[in-house]
Design a protein that fits this description.
The complex is a heterodimer of chains A (285) and B (331). By secondary structure, chain A is mainly alpha-helical. Chain A has a single domain, classed as MetI-like fold. In chain A, 76% of the residues lie in helices and 0% in strands. In chain A, α2 packs across α4 and α7 packs antiparallel against α9. Chain A is elongated. Chain B has 331 residues and is of the alpha/beta class. Chain B has a single domain, classed as Rossmann fold (3-Layer(aba) Sandwich). Chain B is built from eleven helices and twelve strands. In chain B, the strands form two sheets. Chain B has an eight-stranded mixed beta sheet, sandwiched between helices. Chain B has a four-stranded antiparallel beta sheet with strand order 2-1-4-5. Chain B is globular. The chains are: A mainly alpha (285), B alpha/beta (331). Chains A and B meet through α8, α9, α12 and α13 of A and α2, β6 and α3 of B.
Amino acid sequence: MLKRALAHPSLFVGGVLTTLIVCAAVFAPWLATHPVEQMAMRERFAMPSAAHWLGTDNFGRDLWTRIIFGARISLSIALISVSAAAAIGSAIGLVAGYFGGWIDLVLMRVTDVFLGFPALILALAIVAVMGPGVLNVSIALIIVFWTEYARVVRSATLVLREQAYVTAARALGASHFRIITKEILPNTVGPIIVLTTLGLGTAILSESALSFLGFGVPPPQPTWGWTLAYGTRFIRSEPWLSIVAGMAIMLTVLAFNLLGDGLRDLLDPRQLSRAGRSTSSQKGS
Amino acid sequence: MTQASPQRAPALSVTGLDVVIDGDGGSFPVVRDMAFAVARGETLAIVGESGCGKSMTALSLLRLQPPAARIVRGAIAVEGADVLALPRPALEDIRGERIGMIFQEPLTALNPVMTVGDQIVEVLQRHLSLGGAAAQARAVELLSLVRMPDPAAKARLYPHQMSGGMRQRAMIAIALACDPAVLVADEPTTALDVTIQAQILGLIRDLQRRLGTALVLITHDLGVVAEMADTVIVMYAGRRVEVAPVMALFDEPLHPYTRALMKAAPSLEAGAAKAALTEIGGTVPPLWDLPRGCAFSNRCSLATERCRREEPPLEAKRAGHLAACWEVADG
């Protein structure tokens, strides 16, 4: 398994990047070179140096420290919202697609209502009502994101439930629940993983956008979106601030997308035999 | 003949089964007045062209017919249990445990993301509450029962890593996992190479004899029928047109459709080589637009005015040999 993972370049790069970013977030208190809130007005807008690895912001706060602490906020919001959205959306999609009929009709019309709003506007409205903060931003993103899973999983289920092996499973006495969990769900894992990892990227972007617009996690919490937004005020003279925050967002989104592509190939045994023919054919013959 | 042994209760019996499909322009019948009984150790073959309702019959036995199809009449009994009256949980208990099913295309009938061993374990868990190492061991045992080479290693393979013949062996192992009373095989060898076909048929026959299973074999291949069956039902347009013990059917096919089928099949017997194959003129009439009278009348060389007007009943023309045709004389 590990050998195959190493042989897959995007999985390898994505995996390494993701691991580094997650480690930076988890071990932020030990990796930080300065206290998060420490201001030093004489050192404001410093370029990267031995003292400040990524330079400083407009208050002279160390950017490296603020970026790795920001990773904690961004990643936890992304993980909470995407995993909850994936679980809720997939469950609804599976039920709607498998049972069809009026159940499908009702569930999909509800999904349509949520899809009718532009995603970011809906998230903005929810945060505006509930107030900013990590939990509220996460809830807002769940409400925005679950529809995507419901739609994709439903359409995959519509195809899968007609497969001969589903009929075969029924012929072997499998209940609806067993068919959904054992026959259909494992076969939708590919699209769900792709959506989830793309979703992690989108969630980070959305959280940054909300913070950028001032509806996210409020300062002085060191969020990437807020740092990026605030940096634009000085972008003509001191572009460094926005570039660092933007790079952090971009690298994280890229890492998740690469990882998602790689995982999809690794987890689907059919994809696997095509990608890593040499390894599987040796075992299979 | 199955009816001739009343002392032995049939493992599966079907009486007066009617299945219809609900379409846009009303419903039309796909299976009409199907009836048969199979005892343990016996083989019943159902033969017919594509679309004659033989697969629909097979699926209906476990109430697995597609959503558009509806069983409107009849009775199906598996070892005395009334399949059509059972509540869903009890029906699910019967499926796979008392009736096993082998499907035509073994690649699509196996879950692509589960190893073959796990798929067998799944059934053992479901019906026999067998889990863990015991289930694993039983799965390997079942694979060796179906003569899978190197069964322990094969149990860890995914369906796509196997050849067609191995997949069909795995399907058979799954179908027989709970030692069912009835095995329904829907065109089990159609998707396989000719050499593998013979192996798989031989395997099914051996296992059936060894385990004493009742076998319902759905096929369009008369060669398979001759080799496997005890009793044969010939279907045309959803209806039985001839029912006979296998020897009687091949010695003296009564229904013009059966005779035409036999002329259309190549034979290797001496003297037969020179006889040209004859096709059956015309096509099967669509089930929603059957001709009045006998459904075969528009393709039958013997058809008379009466055939086009009245549908012939299925009646005994010889001892234990039934046919639905006005033109076949009793004898």
